[in-house]
Amino acid sequence: MTEAPGIPERARALDAADALAAFRERFRLPRAPNGAAAIYLCGNSLGPMPVAAEAAVRTVLEDWAGLAVGAHHAGQAPWVDFHARFAAPLARLVGAAPAEVVAMNSLTVNLHLMLASFYRPAAGRHRILIEASAFPSDRYAIVSQLRWHGRSAEESLVEVGPRAGADVLATADLIAAIERAGPSLALVLLPGVQYLTGQVLDVAALSAAARRAGAAVGWDLAHAIGNVPLALHDSGADFAAWCSYKYLCGGPGAVAGVFVHERHARERGLPRLAGWWGHDAASRFDMGPDFHAMPGAEGWQLSNPPLLALAPLAAALELFDAAGLGRLREKSLALTDFARELIERNTAGRIEIVTPAAAAEHGAQLSLRVRGGRGRRVFERLAAAGVVGDWREPDVIRLAPAPLYNRFTEVESAVRHLTVALETP
Q1: pLDDT at 4
Q2: Known catalytic membership, residue 234
Q3: Which domains does the chain have, with CATH numbers?
Q4: Is 119 a catalytic residue?
Q5: Does the active-site annotation cover 245?
Q6: What is the pLDDT of residue 145?
Q7: Contact 102, 88 (CB under 8 A)
Q8: Measured between alpha carbons, how far is residue 356 from residues 201, 276, 362 in Å?
Q9: Residues 23, 86, 135, 320: which is the catalytic one?
Q10: From 11-15, 198-202, 350-354, 373-377, the region with the lowest mean pLDDT
Q11: What percent of the chain lies above the pLDDT cut of 90?
């Protein structure tokens, strides 16, 4: 790599001026194969461990050891309402009221719970619209729900892909597909950020289009929460679901979450799959035979949460609140723009950046396609050099500099390693 004059110095200056630089020390980051610090650009797949996560789990273990069942109502963090502490910080991240969100289950379980309530096919209105390149688990969930209702993907699934020769979805095409489906459309389910390309979709415009068509609308925010600004309440979306182990850094298998718009709290007769922990808290322990839902999103809970999987998320959300969403987004854009600039300057003609360039259309992730079919080899060389990204078939390397723990000097080093990998026979 022929280093442009001043680039390493510029990266160091950006790090020196970074108001969020100290947050890096609040994470445990992995090591490279040679024992040096790795350049961890894989928070879009699994966020690194917050240092405070260990103490958060230890607190639950200590209460369990010292109080056993008594820890439900006593101890350092009583378990009976442990989940409630997550409503406010999650609401801030997704742009909702605290009553509209709840931490529970895993992403795909939550999608099934939401579909049980919001996919109500009728004779003329039974179709579901998704993106043609949806994350496999989402498509599996949708198709299985269609079959559950006695329908097939051939008759009831509408899939919208990019235009010929394009990698990303066009908002106008999605809206046009929603309008064409019209009165046959029961549900729209789309990603806030497309997992392969890193494209941010227009949640407000697409939610409005779905509602105009008379369809329910939900969002998979796995790659969006903690990554890009969200305003779910104002968008009018009916529901959303997300996992917490990517940008939120809640740990492997972390407890996920859902959003349900507050207008549905006022609906009587909305069907749902019910469980004990969704029952009204005031009478839950009366053990009555009839289900009375908690108001808001909490009414979709099934069982009391797995505390050991939920505790690390508390430590992670504290970091987001301390950093502030505005500052995080500002640094995220700066990191990604810096990476894009260096990649375009040093790998011209050899790397295609699939992710859109406009700030409103991308988050932290850059999806790279190596021309000439050498992508997997280049990815493996990056990994050997200590640059941790990930590979997605058939030909995409994903690198995601995250503002809570990544540095501009790491971006500069990663692109230098990328250039070397491209030049190695």
Answers
A1: 59
A2: no
A3: 7-50+324-423 (3.90.1150.10), 58-320 (3.40.640.10)
A4: no
A5: yes
A6: 97
A7: no
A8: 11, 44, 6
A9: 135
A10: 373-377
A11: 91
Mean pLDDT of all residues belonging to the chain: 95
> How many Cβ atoms are within 10 Å of 191's Cβ, its own excluded?
24
Mean pLDDT within 94-106:
98
Q: What is the 3-state secondary structure (H, E, C) of the chain?
A: CCCCCCHHHHHHHHHHCCCCHHHHHHEECCECCCCCECEECECCCCCCEECHHHHHHHHHHHHHHHHHHHHHCCCCCCCCCHHHHHHHHHHHHHCCCHHHEEECCCHHHHHHHHHHHHCCCCCCCCEEEEECCCCHHHHHHHHHHHHHCCCCHHHHEEEECCCCCCCCCCHHHHHHHHHHHHHHEEEEEEECECCCCCEECCHHHHHHHHHHCCCEEEEECCCCCCCCCCCHHHHCCCEEEECCCCCCCCCCCCCCEEEECHHHHHCCCCCCCCCHHHECCCCHHHCCCCCCECCHHHHHCCCCCCHHHHHHHHHHHHHHHHHCHHHHHHHHHHHHHHHHHHHHHHCCCCEEECCCCCHHHECCCEEEEECCCCHHHHHHHHHHCCEECEEECCCEEEEECCCCCCCHHHHHHHHHHHHHHHHCC
Q: Which of 220, 320, 395, 405 is catalytic?
A: 220
Catalytic residue, from 63, 86, 202, 246: name it: 246
Query: Each residue of 200-221: pLDDT tens digit?
Result: 999 999 999 999 999 999 999 9
Q: What are phi and psi of 103, to 5 degrees?
A: -90, 125
Determine contact, residues 156/127, Cβ cutoff 8 Å.
Answer: yes
- Note if 246 is an active site residue: yes
Distances (CA, A) of 137 to 224, 272, 336, 355, 386: 17, 21, 28, 22, 30
Q: Which of 199, 130, 112, 139 is nearest to 398 (CA)?
A: 199
Q: Decide if pLDDT at 1 tops 80.
A: no
Cα-Cα-Cα-Cα dihedral sign, residues 25, 31, 36, 39 = negative
Marked catalytic residue, from 82, 245, 320, 338: 245
Q: Residues 398, 405, 407, 408: which is the catalytic one?
A: 398
If pLDDT is split at 50, 70 and 90, which confidence band does 316 have? Answer: very high
Q: Is 26 a catalytic residue?
A: no
